[in-house]
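Lab notes, practical 5.
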Amino acid sequence: MISLSFLPGPLVIGSISISGLMAWRERRHIDLGRIGWILAGTIVGATLGAWLVAGISPERLGLLFGGMILAGVVITALGLHLPLNRISATIAGIGAGAMGASSGIGAPVVAVLYQRESGPRVRATLAYIYTLASVLIALALALFGRLGSNEFGYAAMLVPGYMLGYYLSQRVTRHFNQSSTRYIVLGVSAAAALSLIYRSI
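Output from the prediction step:
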């Protein structure tokens, strides 16, 4: 909503700061068994997403980003259930890579895959996957000329906010109901996406 300059590269690079901290904090709970399949899919998806962003006209980027964000909101809100196996892990990786490279937001697809796992396992695994996937997505964006010094500059502007959010989350989460917070996040995300689409039409 602030500026398209933050999408997708700066958002991907900047968010590594918080996902890396989360993965390290709960590293004992990481599900290492399926990460390889997810990352293999991410390579394919990230290449497709970066190719799409590189080929789309600048005036249409808002429509693309808004549409992808809305897709992530819908996927999360529906609470779809996928069996946790090699095939679903690879498909989730492709979806996460494509959405991450095209909009900077790829986590919802993998979150659907792990939604029925325990809280610590979900947080740790998603953070670890997102950290590694972000590196792959960044490489794909760089390959297609969508990640340079300007994008790293915008990413650096996001990091202090991520760090503050990480610090506050450890102290305020016990005061929030998980389901109500989920709807607030989904609502704000949907409003941002619709606003972006409206401005781009």
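Observations recorded by the TA: The two ends are 14 Å apart (CA to CA). The chain has a mean pLDDT of 84.
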